[in-house]
Amino acid sequence: MKKTGFLARAVSPAPPEHAAAGDFLRVFCVFMIAWYHIWQQSWLSPRLEIGPVALDMTVPVRTGYMFVDLMLMLSGFLLYLPYANSRERSPRAFYLRRALRILPSYWLCMAVMLAFALAEPGFSDGAGLARDLAAHLGFVHNLFYETYVRTRLNVVLWTLAVEVQFYLILPVLAPAFRRQPVVCYLAMVGAALCFQRLWTHPMADTTIFINRLPNMLDVYANGMLAAELYVRLAKAARRRGLIAALGTLACAAGIWGAARVLTAQCHLSGYDALRLGQLDHRFAFSLCGAAFLAGGSLSFGGVRALLSNRAVRFLSALSFNFYIWHQWLAVRLKQWRIPPYLSFADPNQAGEMPWQLHYTLLCFLAALLAAALVTYLVERPCARLGKRLLERRAAL
Q1: What residues make up the domain containing 192?
Q2: pLDDT of 46-66, one tens digit each?
Q3: Where are the alpha helices (DSSP H) in the chain?
Q4: Domain count, the chain
Q5: pTM of the entire structure?
């Protein structure tokens, strides 16, 4: 019997080319990472009290750095999604699309960071800054201590280095994954576990090794497998109600599992323990994120509408540039004493209120404004111009 009305909308097929939960996940991960970085500057308690209602966000904020792994898992999902839909692109087309997507904003960021670095009082290390810039332009800055931990540019950009390094292997990896998803998945997870346990764990100092691509292959593998399963179930013609119910359960299970991982990570202390804890939890945490991503995108129509609507998609479109600028702006605003504070010491150490609250809100607003300006005045116009040039060249 054909379903009509509310029931038909509730169990309507999910579009294989678009995962609704991906929009929400991108926004939430970037927001939590930003909150973590801003909290490091403000020390504002992440416990929210609205009348009699108290919301304690201490655990996710103190472990906000963990959400970078979910961002990379989401990237693996989205990069592999066209292949799962049998819409393979040539390596040249893939690299051109990725370049048009990230390079205009990235180069603008580099230019601004370079200008500020050169203008710093007492600047004298021109050769060191040149090496820093060259490593960032070559997307290898996460491989060297001076350009990763001690960079004069933008410390959060190490994630783009990992991303671009993954881009290099994807045109070969993705077709193989589509032909043999289980074999490739196990190979990627196995390789990651070998690097993590045999190479990184025994090191006395894991600072510049924990966030290298080999240690994150399992994160990307979870995203790619989630995309493969999502497309197959989204295209299934039967048992739509069962798929929606199981998707909703998987979404809830992913949230529950991720919360358990964050709680365990939050109980650790010391930089070495935190880094190794993140390494140990990386596979499980990204697997929980993959369950939320695929399950939420296959869930009932009402759930999908909450995860992807006009407001969420707007914020999702700004998330890349929000991520690029938030931490740098937070540090600069504090250096510039915006908003002004009274303490002789750092106002966060003095617990100065209402500065902590005003500063936190201003950091989010400044990053959002910068993201909107760069997205609509730089990223999108450059992408449109690049697309037109490519179309003209193809027509010749």
Answers
A1: 5-395
A2: 988 777 888 889 999 999 999
A3: 5-10, 20-42, 58-62, 67-84, 91-119, 126-137, 145-148, 158-179, 181-194, 217-234, 240-266, 271-298, 301-307, 310-335, 347-350, 355-374, 380-395
A4: 1
A5: 0.94
